Amino acid sequence: MGGAFLSISCGQSGKVPWQLGNPRRFIDWNFRSVGLIVLGRVFLLTVIHDGLVPWLLKISRMHGILGLSAAAGRSVWQTGTMLTRAHEPLITPAEPPTLACARLDPAVGKGGGSLLAETHCPIELSRLTKTFTVKKQLQEKELGLVNLVKRTVLRKRTKEKLTALNEVSFKVEKGEIFGLLGPNGAGKTTLVKTLCTLLWPNSGTALINGYDIRKYPKETRRSLGTVLDIHMGWYGRLSCRQNLLFYGQLFGLRAGDLNSKAKEVMELVGLSEKADEWQQKLSTGMKRKLDLARALLPDPPILLLDEPTLGLDVKSARDFRGMVRDRLCGEMGKTVLWTTHNMEEANKICDRVAILHKGRLLALGKPDGIKQMAKTANVVVAEVDRADKSMVQAMEDTPGVRAVSSTESKVWPGLYTLRIEIEDRNAVSAISAAIVSSGASLYSLTMEEVSLEDALIWMTEGNQGMKEDRK
Amino acid sequence: MRSVVLPFYQMYAFFRRDAVNTSSYKLNFVFSLAGMFTWAITTGILGKLTGPALQPYIIQYGAQNAATFMLLGMMINQFLQVSQQAPLWIANPGQLERIILTPCPIPVFVLGTMAWEYFWHLLSLVIFIGTGVFLFGMRLVTVNWGTFAVVLIMGILAMWGLGIISAAIQLVTKRWDPLTWILTSFSFMISGVFYPPSALNQVDGSGALYSFAWFLPHTYVYHMVRLAFGGYHLTDPEILTPLLKLSCLSVGLFAAGWFVFRLCLKRCQLEGSLGWV
CA of A233, closest CA in chain B: separation in Å? Predict the structure, then answer.
């Protein structure tokens, strides 16, 4: 545009006024060109003032960019004060009632960030909310040409808001493995991506190592090692070592330390033997380990692992879990946020878990505590060789028993399973005595346990209220 | 001190990565070099054959012949194209997302990603000039290298601006940006790769194509590089005026590009589409 404008004002012929010869033509030329310049500037100013600026402000407000100018760093236009003020009413993060502290000056944390180490939790979330704008699914009655025109031309009601995270709040303590559980689409990956600043939250607060993710995205990233759910950013024809050296340089590791650090993390994750192998030749499990090695390169205090054992075989997954639990958390004191939908895995590795469903936090606590929440009754399961009516009646008459049901095994005729719902565990000895006195043989007697999987299903399907295990 | 050196250290990381990656395709590496050589010869021959027809139009550029005119056109075209297209690579799904997770600033990422390509095209520039000198009578004694370098740098800056705007568009549209398509097509046609824009008046009596050509920054670069090869100095009005125009254009495009890129990046971060393909 600038070039075009200059071209016009200087004349396409390339001739300057004094080369035009005739003084009258010179005056005409000059008059016309000055008029053109004035008109052009008025037009440009009008466009900028009435069109461009309001449009930019609108767009910026819509996407919440104005308030992010500080986080986005030094904007070329230095949108700065005016735009930030314009945005102030739009981002109103509620004061987090539970936050222990917020690091206000990023300079304080430079060089190790140990100043606040005693006072803050590595991860603190308070009412974190993230919404996406998605295309609205058409109902059958809305199909048809008229509606199509309305949607495409008039752009009527073609989009709707999807809340991926709905006021999520929790804290993760130092050295803890915190599991984030939930079915597909619960918002686990969105939460991880938001915490590592790949996504921008709409409201709420999240502190990583004491840094507000919106105010200090760079410091936030320096505190984090991230393993995301896909193998991103690798160069297949570079060896594992070369890939790690590349990322080490980007992390700003000193040239002298780079090789030793790469070697150290490869040893830590068990990749030393594959160090000079092309990345694309690695198995899925090895690639996962390489993901973890990259996350560990800058020695971050916090690790965000998004489904890290996805695609690993049983042994590799077990080794991976063991390494995270024993080496990274146990020996090195790192804090881990581990997302998974594998309940068994969460039960084995996590100190505490949170259950997320449709963006809402449904439960938070130790795995056993969560299981207890889902336990609606104590059930004893007895395997016996007979279960006639008189015996069932005798069981029902036993003190502390609420209900009894029996089923015969289809595989092993003559083997009966009794499900006996009891009021408390004291009734168990009375039950075994009743079975023996009825003349039946008792093969086994066990208390039915609620698994984390049961708890998840119970919570996500039947119970929408937030539960917290405070034990 | 470390904060000054760090961006260069990070840029070197990108350069080394791309050098290792490119040289790992050994056969492709060797044949790409050979390809540059054959392409330079083809262009030179084309120049020789069309020389008589072009001569009236290229006389303004000094004593250079038509083959040199075409070789310069192709050579600069490659530089401008890489400058315009390199920022698009940063919009690769996955890559940008991963780099954002490191402390590497985005400008360093952009420049680092382009570093290897520039080195590669510098090699091509040497091959084109060598071919011109040894086979097609290109004269280097008349070249004003200072002017040549300044013009090339300004051209590259303008192309970065366009390229960054394209990358921003591609961040949102994911596959296609109209800007690259339009500029690449039109710059080949009217900016003066094979013939000067003034030759367009022979086929377009209205002069519209000629006027439109000067809307594109490419035209200024081709024009001034050839003048530099003809021995013109930076202070000569033939160079100074278009250089000023190009400078304004470069600064404007670069600033606009960067602003639009940040806007689109934030949009992707808000809608979560950074890793989408």
Answer: 5
